[in-house]
Amino acid sequence: MADQSINRREFLGKTIGLAGVSVFAPSVSSGAKPKNPIRPESAPVVLKNVLLETGFIRDEIEVVGTKTRLFTLKLENGVITEILPQAATSTGTDAKGLLMLPAMKDMHIHLDKTYYGGPWKARESKYKTVKELIEHEKKVIPELLPYSTERAEKLIELLQSKGTNFARSHVNIEPTSQLNSLTNLYKALDHKKGSFETELVAFPQHGVFYSGSQELMKEAAQMDIDFIGGVDPYSLDGNIEKTMDFTIQLALDYGKGLDIHLHESGESGLLTLQYLVKKVLENPQLKGKSYLSHCFVLGALDAKTLQATCEALAEAEIGITTTVPIGYNVMPIPTLMNHGIKVMAGTDCVTDHWQPFGTGSMLDKAKTMAELYRYNHEFGLSRALGIGTKGLLPLDKEGNQVWPKVGDEASFTLVDASCSAETVARLRPVEQLYHRGILVFERTDLKC
């Protein structure tokens, strides 16, 4: 098949200031470039007095603390090129003993439709079901579209201020907004290119057949997106197989991944999950590229059914993206992880017509996970950080230092904390965010 992808416009450098923060978007030279390019060559950066975790402190029963030491790091061309023991005579930018942690990854968000950056508005409680909210959204979207590029940029700046340098964003593809939500988001991402990276999901929010989005989804599949999305094929479209077959075939035809919103927690939710497993096993090129978002049905299964379901998801290499929800059946996240299933998290709606509670912080999600599963001890808190970093942690389970290493991408946060466990438990603020070796956010208000 000939390449029919439509590339985003080239980045125009700009610097945007927010109250109490500085967010930098450096310029990238013009010319044909792929989406989210690695940064161009830049002058080496030397960071001294960087605090790194080096191991666990144990008593006769458990991990009771985390070992740390100061280091000097050299960054060049977007990667870490040297990690040296700290010396009193070392030169470079002083990190002042701040703790270095991996940059956060928001793996489920809707950058294209948000109230953030505009006037305050809470959700209207009279819209209760998904279909009622969809009908309401058909009225809201035309009001949001004129501001969606600007607000997406502001939302990205919020994420950066929370230490996030990467997001997987679902983008509405439906008759109300046509492809305008996607093209408006392209503009925002072009403005942020070089300081923030994304994966995009073509998302038929109003249902594939319920809203008549088939042709629009086919158009979007030929554009600069990474995943074909879906939502509740039974409750919206009334036919699991018909909707899933359309969605899966679209992903196969255009070489995309799959990311399906599945809110249904009853029999239809389990049947949808099982059908996806079946189709992925029939099409192994989709293994490792298929995800179920939310997937609340997992929290409603008895132990025997959950065991069999986890084994099936693991065999098909289907991942789960979760918001670590409160107020639903508690999701069995530890069980999923114990089966080797890739579990990632996102902030979903920061504030829009669906809900107003998002902070944009993946550390917030890590803290919620720790509270839900009683990870209130040093080891558990250190593991909870991984839900916000796409699994990347400074120490492995045995306490061996596995990050950072020479050759790693130089994307990280600096926080005023003694260790990752304290960062999660106390929600320590992000002081700086580096993206591929370049400082893209710095907190300038008073430390709390």
UniProtKB/TrEMBL annotation:
UniProt xrefs under PROSITE patterns: TAT
Every Amidohydrolase domain range: 210-425
Domain of life of the source: Bacteria
An example molecular function term from Gene Ontology annotations: hydrolase activity, acting on carbon-nitrogen (but not peptide) bonds, in cyclic amidines
InterPro entries per record: Amidohydro_3, Metal-dep_hydrolase_composite, Metal_Hydrolase, Metallo-hydrolase_Enzymes, TAT_signal
Pfam families given in the database record: Amidohydro_3
UniProt-listed NCBIfam families: PRK06846.1
Protein name as annotated: Cytosine deaminase
Organism: Mariniradius saccharolyticus AK6
